[in-house]
Amino acid sequence: MTQHHHSLPQGEVAFVGAGPGDPELLTLRALRLLTTAEVVLHDHLVPDDILALAPQARMVAVGKAGFGPSMKQDDINALIIDHAREGYRVVRLKSGDPGVFGRLDEETTALDAAGIAFHVTPGLTAASAAAASLGVSLTRRGRNSDLRLLTGHDVKGFAEQDWRALARPGAVAAIYMGKRAARFLQGRLMMHGADPQTPVTVVANAARPTERRLPATLSSLAADLDASHIDGPAVLLLGLAPRDAQTIRANRQEAL
């Protein structure tokens, strides 16, 4: 095989965050690695217009397809290792940020065991893109001095959290994979004393042309989601309302 003279040494793997889906939200490094890759192993959620940035590469669809069929993690690990051992410049392209609910450690551990070098390029995570879309901040002085990134599901089903902390006034959390867990989240939070009027905004397909926003409150969340028929990956922003909704609420309070 001919010696490669590009940005990735022979047999090295680059884990690359594809961001929330808008190609313009890729980092410059992510773009450079895509344009020099020979093999791209990508998640199902990475959109075609990002894959199109690597026309020279062989595309291999791997990863998890929501609640549908998915490739076993061991098989994904083996595919990455096999391509790297063949000397290809491999990009493992993950939606969002590889280190936020992206099973990064399972794949890097397998590469360590196989003696294959790798590096990680972070990507913009869905929580950041969703908050930016609403025109609001994930943190704010006097409201929340911490921010929680949670998953609605873990390997055992619905994920238990520190509900008492999340139920406090001013708490802000971004809940990934939370659509199907909405009723569970609603029940747990209200059982621990959360205000039923706490804003919760659902942002689906953040930063994509198909983006949809659903402003709700904790008490209406599950019913609103059921009625909305929202498709695609969604993040639930607990404690945050869209900027226009905040303005309306502030004006109402002034009028009173």
UniProtKB/TrEMBL annotation:
**Pathway(s) the chain acts in:** Porphyrin-containing compound metabolism; siroheme biosynthesis; precorrin-2 from uroporphyrinogen III: step 1/1
GO molecular-function terms, A-Z: uroporphyrin-III C-methyltransferase activity
Q: Which PANTHER family match?
A: S-ADENOSYL-L-METHIONINE-DEPENDENT UROPORPHYRINOGEN III METHYLTRANSFERASE, CHLOROPLASTIC, SIROHEME SYNTHASE-RELATED
The record's annotation in CDD domains points to: SUMT
Q: Which family does it belong to?
A: Belongs to the precorrin methyltransferase family.
Q: Which UniProt keywords apply?
A: Methyltransferase, Porphyrin biosynthesis, S-adenosyl-L-methionine, Transferase
Which SUPFAM superfamilies would you find in this protein's record?
Answer: Tetrapyrrole methylase
Q: What is this protein called?
A: uroporphyrinogen-III C-methyltransferase
Q: What is its EC number?
A: 2.1.1.107
Origin organism is Salipiger aestuarii
* One GO process term, biological-process aspect: methylation
**Domain Tetrapyrrole methylase residues, every copy:** 13-221
Enzyme type, top EC level: transferase
